[in-house]
Design goal:
It is a single chain. The chain is mainly β. It has one domain (3-199). It contains no helices and 14 strands. The protein is globular, with a radius of gyration of 18 Å.
Length: 214
């Protein structure tokens, strides 16, 4: 596997700082959740030159909100990522750092999918199509009005508060099984997912000594 998770940092506020260690060229994916949303949220800060907005997902009654952004690390000095505006209180935020052992490539957004619904006791996170199937990461962030859990092969789940989840899969194939979730009682939900791949990278040059046999 050429992709790996370097670190994952969670917060119960509207600000979160990547734990690192940072490496220029690594991928950061960040999300937040809000139980009383409003429009106009903006993101700032962090060890990236710019953020790429993926999606914002609300339930049908616009009572909960989650959103996804991604960016590429351009400095080894960490700094806080902060969300402002929008109204209400951010219930938590998360940032995950991913690394590819390939070099010289670029991170490229593939597909995304969005879902905001009514209430249910179980469900399946969105499954945007993975067109490349190698060097591809699946990421979803969700907000619920109660505690959820999940276990799907090839996916890693993080629940860092009663309401918030972050799920990722590394090197997902073009056909993959999207993660599922369940709750002990009916919950309102909103979530979105994105696939991002590392394009055009090459393996690093070997540093192994050359042995000559004469």
């Amino acid at each position: 596997m050429t992709l790996s998770l370097v670190s994952q940092t969670t917060s119960l506020t509207a600000s979160v700082t990547p734990a690192g260690p940072l490496a220029v060229g690594d991928l950061l994916v960040t999300t937040f959740g809000n139980l009383s949303p409003g429009a106009g949220w903006t993101i700032s800060g962090g060890p990236v030159a710019s953020w790429n907005f993926v999606l914002a997902s609300e339930d049908v009654g616009s009572t909960i909100l989650t959103a996804l952004w991604w960016g590429v690390v351009n400095t080894t000095t960490t700094s806080a990522i902060t969300w402002t505006g929008g109204g209400g209180t951010v219930n938590g935020s998360c940032v995950s750092q991913f690394h590819s052992t390939l070099t010289g490539g670029t991170w490229t957004q593939d597909r995304y999918a969005n879902a905001g619904g009514g209430s249910a006791t179980s469900g399946t996170y969105p499954s945007p199509f993975a067109t490349v199937g190698v060097e591809e990461i699946y990421v979803t962030g969700g907000i619920f009005t109660g505690t959820t859990s999940g276990s799907t092969a090839g996916m890693v789940y993080t629940n860092w508060s009663t309401y918030l989840t972050f799920v990722y899969g590394l090197n997902v194939p073009t056909t993959y099984t999207p993660p599922t979730w369940s709750a002990g009682s009916s919950v309102v939900y909103a979530y979105g997912a994105v696939t991002i791949y590392y394009l055009g990278g090459t393996p690093p040059a070997s540093t192994a000594p050359i042995v000559m046999v004469v």
